[in-house]
Design brief:
Layout lengths: L1 H41 L4 H24 L8 H29 L5 H27 L20
Helix pairs in contact: 1-2, 1-4, 2-3, 3-4
Amino acid sequence: MSLVRGLIEQVRHLVHEIAKFGVVGTVGFIVTEVGFNLLHFSEGLGLFTSNAIATGVAAVITFVGNKYWTFAQRGHQSTTRETVWFFVLNGVGALIQYGCAWTAKNAFGVTDKYLLNVAFLFGIGVATLFRFWSYRKWVWGEPLGPVPEEAPQGDLIRG
């Protein structure tokens, strides 16, 4: 029974991390999308420049959210190490995003704002999966001690 309970607790912990990562990522997504559209379509900056600036601003926000909330219960290394790895891996994610938008624009000739955003959104989705996996693996260590358990709720009906 202990093995099953341990597995359930690990899955519960993973689900909590995914949910928190999703909240932080949603904020980052909004910053990225709004920033990309403002910079590329309103200000006329290039595709790569718009993506890089918007993603860079979102990366700072998501670093803080992930370090101090999503992965707060993991074994942290030095902040310098975590920061370097986070931004390197986030850069890989940005290249994934950019690659999808670039492919749509240059390989398929897409210039329509809506379709270019669909390609960018697809890239963000793929990059998000990469980021979650890589941050858990290389940026923030294993959870400190056993996965935290919730306090037992007890029996609400007493005889």
